[in-house]
Design the sequence.
């Protein structure tokens, strides 16, 4: 099955975790033996070869750099300009991967179709570039609105205005409060440029406000269900239905704390909480049941998003194991047409509808 993954922090892993993602996952793990600076050392799941092995030919790949005030407990950069510079370093990594033939940018219908044709031409994947759609997770690094068009011109096609905590443009996970005028102006400029609004991480107040003020394309790249795991990081059934009504696609994430209740970082394990790919299916199936069809769910795995095998489904070793999820959906009675929608076609239809 051809798969599109709508949320991977590839450049963060390359630049901040110092992972050469051209290596296979076992090599990445071996290179980190004995490292303790991050909790997921030796537990990587994502690499470019493993994407190819999993027939994952298109990803939504992020830039991410958060601005935080000095007293913040959340890590980040002390000025928007520093955050912007960090995203530019991440951008240059993607460009370097393009130069090396490892990746290719997707920015419009033509480049999307070209990548689809390449990955479905019946030949082996080993030498094929991974297509990437550039997304910004958290808008803090947009120094002012004049930077937004600069970012669009270098290929940025989606923005999640918020990440964790309070943000310069919107409040995110574990925060509350509506957007300020800055945030509303950001939405207006995004709409003018036809940049996709990624609703993921918006706090409830900002979520409803954004839906009221933004008339462009919306998706939620990596979200799960509050009715199954009661936390503000998840979206309620009401919010999920609102996204469906707006034509959104919602990407199923594979972070264990979003999949099972009462996860305690550093204490809980995938095995102790019975967190596996069947658990992922239950969340994604719940969205399908709410929608009344399989037209609004996809994959947005967030694998290696500052966690590794210690905090993802127990039966997933590398990202190539997303193919196991196809089998689970099939076993649960989903028709082949619906499997195609869930694992790639919903994202393709969304982009073909909203792009030039």
Sequence:
């Amino acid at each position: 099955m051809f798969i599109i993954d709508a949320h991977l922090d590839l450049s963060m892993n390359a630049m901040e975790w110092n992972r050469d993602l051209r290596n296979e996952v076992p090599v990445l793990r071996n290179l980190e033996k004995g490292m303790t600076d991050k909790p997921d050392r030796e537990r990587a799941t994502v690499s470019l070869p493993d994407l190819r092995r999993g027939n994952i030919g298109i990803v939504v790949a992020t830039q991410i750099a958060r601005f935080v005030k000095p007293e913040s407990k959340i890590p980040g950069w002390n000025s928007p300009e520093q955050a912007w510079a960090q995203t530019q370093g991440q951008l240059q990594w993607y460009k370097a991967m393009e130069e090396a033939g490892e990746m290719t940018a997707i920015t419009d219908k033509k480049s999307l179709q070209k990548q689809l044709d390449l990955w479905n031409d019946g030949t082996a994947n080993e030498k094929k570039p991974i297509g990437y759609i550039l997304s910004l997770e958290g808008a803090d690094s947009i120094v002012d609105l004049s930077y937004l068009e600069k970012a669009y011109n270098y290929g940025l096609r989606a923005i999640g205005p918020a990440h964790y905590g309070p943000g310069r443009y919107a409040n995110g996970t574990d925060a509350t409060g509506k957007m300020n005028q800055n945030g509303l102006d950001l939405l207006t400029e995004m709409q003018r440029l036809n940049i996709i609004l990624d609703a993921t991480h918006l706090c409830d107040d900002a979520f409803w406000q954004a839906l009221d003020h933004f008339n462009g394309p919306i998706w939620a790249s990596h979200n799960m269900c509050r009715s199954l795991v009661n936390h503000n990081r998840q979206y309620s059934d009401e919010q999920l239905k609102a996204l469906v009504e707006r034509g959104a696609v919602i990407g199923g994430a594979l972070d264990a704390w979003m999949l099972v209740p009462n996860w305690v970082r550093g204490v809980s394990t995938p095995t102790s909480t019975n967190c596996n790919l069947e658990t992922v299916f239950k969340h994604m199936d719940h969205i399908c049941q709410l929608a009344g069809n399989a037209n609004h769910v996809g994959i947005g795995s967030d694998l290696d998003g500052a966690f590794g095998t210690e905090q993802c489904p127990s039966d997933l070793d590398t990202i190539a194991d997303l193919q196991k999820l196809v089998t689970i959906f099939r076993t649960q009675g989903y028709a082949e047409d619906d499997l195609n929608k869930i694992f790639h076609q919903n994202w393709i239809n969304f982009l073909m509808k909203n792009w030039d």
